[in-house]
Please model this.
Amino acid sequence: ISGNGTRTLLDSRGQKVELLGIAGHIIYEVKHDAKWVENDTKLAWVSTCDEPSWADECLRKFRASPRAKQEPLVPLKQLADAEHIYEARSKQVHFKRLQQDTGIPFD
Model:
């Protein structure tokens, strides 16, 4: 981890992996702010990739940061209600399984 993990990680070759812009703040807000919590907003990690273990490591190491500095940083992995990161023949496979797991209809 470079810094506190809110913006940048280094991979095994020393290459930067960056969380875009204020994504960490937005993700934190979706899981903690009353306007989202009251509406039972769900968050899921969904990706078709050939390195799911590396994606998992990044989700464990990147931290969502609240705007108020006194609140603790939270690993992104802990904030998702569902996770579907694996190699699949299409995104449709992920979304079908996500729908089955969450019971949320996709229109």
About this structure: The mean pLDDT is 86. The beta strands are 8-10, 16-18, 44-48, 63-64, 74-75, 82-86. Helices lie at 23-32, 34-37, 52-61, 76-79, 91-102.
